[in-house]
């Protein structure tokens, strides 16, 4: 098994409800190490750039507006199979379909306001990490 890094975002619905610590505990309990973390308030344009791959999807403008509506916590998680493991801990995109014990089952409000983002593949993880962090900020 390979040690991987993945980009995680604690979204506005979760920072608004002071859930950062509870969400981080789930990552750490699953063996994911938080090797970089910062709280930022995205502009709609920055959110749009981050989610560029979704720009043709019907929910794109709603998603960008939501991601810029309040601060987010961006972080890099490291561990064995970190990308898949993080997605397992997050649960399904729509909380109605998420398994018991997952972040989205416990905390998400809706398919849009679903508390967390996680990269979906090694290439996107590398791009998304570089979007928010310099190499010096990653302390493994
Ligand atoms: P993420 O990228 O945030 O980790 O989530 P994901 O892979 O599970 O979902 P994805 O299909 O990549 O969608 C990105 C985010 O867009 C919002 N969304 N809204 N209203 C809708 O039908 C809808 N579908 C997706 C969610 O916030 C989702 O996480
Ligand atoms: Mg995705």
Automatic annotation (TrEMBL):
**Domain Nucleoside diphosphate kinase-like residue range list:** 3-140
Enumerate the residues binding ATP: 11, 59, 87, 93, 104, 114
From the Swiss-Prot or TrEMBL record, what is one GO molecular function term?
metal ion binding
* Location(s) in or outside the cell: Cytoplasm
| Record's GO cellular component terms | cytoplasm
InterPro entries tied to this protein: NDK-like_dom, NDK-like_dom_sf, Nucleoside_diP_kinase, Nucleoside_diP_kinase_AS
PROSITE patterns according to UniProt = NDPK, NDPK_LIKE
Q: Which UniProt keywords apply?
A: ATP-binding, Cytoplasm, Kinase, Magnesium, Metal-binding, Nucleotide metabolism, Nucleotide-binding, Phosphoprotein, Transferase
Catalytic residues (UniProt):
117
Its catalytic activity? Answer: a ribonucleoside 5'-diphosphate + ATP = a ribonucleoside 5'-triphosphate + ADP; a 2'-deoxyribonucleoside 5'-diphosphate + ATP = a 2'-deoxyribonucleoside 5'-triphosphate + ADP
What the record says about family reads: Belongs to the NDK family.
**NCBIfam families xrefs:** PRK00668.1
Functionally, this protein is described as follows: Major role in the synthesis of nucleoside triphosphates other than ATP. The ATP gamma phosphate is transferred to the NDP beta phosphate via a ping-pong mechanism, using a phosphorylated active-site intermediate.
Under the subunit heading, UniProt states: Homotetramer.
What is the protein named?
Nucleoside diphosphate kinase
